[in-house]
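Deviation from plan, reported transparently: beta-D-galactopyranuronic acid complex.
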Amino acid sequence: MVEYLEFHYERKGIDMKKVMLIGAVFACAVAAFASPKPENVPELMTTFKGETVSSVEQWEKVRAPELFDTFAGEEYGRWPQSERYSVSFEADEPDRLMMGGKAIRKRVRITCSGECGARSFVATAFIPVCKKPVPAFLLICNRDPYENIDPTRSKKSGFWPAEEIVDRGYAAIAFWNGDIAPDWNTGNREGIFACFNQAKSRGRFERWGTLAAWAWGASRVMDWIETEPLINSKRVAVVGHSRGGKTALVAGVYDKRFAMACSNDSGCSGAKLNHIDLPRSESVDIIVRSFSYWFAPNYLRLANREKEWKVDQHQFIALMAPRLVCIGSATEDAWAGQEGEYYAGLLASPAWELYGRKGLVANAFPLPENPLQEGCVSYHLRTGKHNLTPYDWKCYMDFADRHGWRK
Ligand code: GTR
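Because the crystal trials were delayed, the predicted structure below was used instead.
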């Protein structure tokens, strides 16, 4: 085809290179025009009273607390206060040297006792044999635990490439979300919910949903990590995919001990901005119809009204500042709204700038396999389907490396 055109253009004295250049410029202009852009996004740095936020102090004392209060009260629900429960740890199995002598496997049983009962679950940790405490990645596994987080390693899955994580010098820790609360609608009465007297929780409509409960489970694993001398508890990333990716953000925002949150393909009510028209992606109306129990009852009122809400998800991401955030999207995952995930990271960035750091450093929505990792917010687009893959893990570990986690 190109040869054919070249031949005819040459005969007519037209410069083929110029034609191609004009074509390319035109294609880029069309792409830029056609690509969705956020509109009327709620201001990150203006308080609900209309004051401009220009200092860390104002952010930490006024803006971040009011945003947190809004998200906790109206979207995910509130965690029970720490006075209402106790946590204890015991070895579920003796420690074992595994992965050809490269890692110590610990299986810890974490028991949480609330005012109405106790629940326990087991977390598995592969900790690289090392002279000093190692940084760690904690996965909230929302897939079949037998297939994906096998503690015996007879089944291996790219969803949790524990061997690769250990090879890179990080501890690989995982637990199954279903051990905290089932992923179906029990009216939030089963699992960990049954250990608490709901009547004692603040506000009926602010009741914690299942995403908040799973995130609370991650936070209890963090309680254990703080007691484990082989792990550096100041360098722990919480990771999740899809509903787990929403949960990882909740865990990171609610529990400041997490130094990084990796939100993979998390989409609606995760890293995706609502103020952008992405007709193929999930909306609040759709998500609350299928998964009302994931959220505080208040959130149901936002169905079809998310654009009228005073906040949006970039402000939730901003609550991670000045800590690290990774957002991952996949090219074949329009349901999660890739551009919405990208823009939420970008629009969250002024929170890092207050601390004299950079958030997401980007000029444009990136091409696949071109991770943007210059600041404290990482964004990458991977070729392929909705999934958590070794490539996504590589991006998250590269980012931690960049921030000196293995030094
Ligand atoms: C979908 C849901 C998404 C996402 C996904 C998953 O059905 O609509 O929000 O969480 O499940 O967790 O795989």
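The chain has a mean pLDDT of 94. We consider this an acceptable substitute for the interim report.
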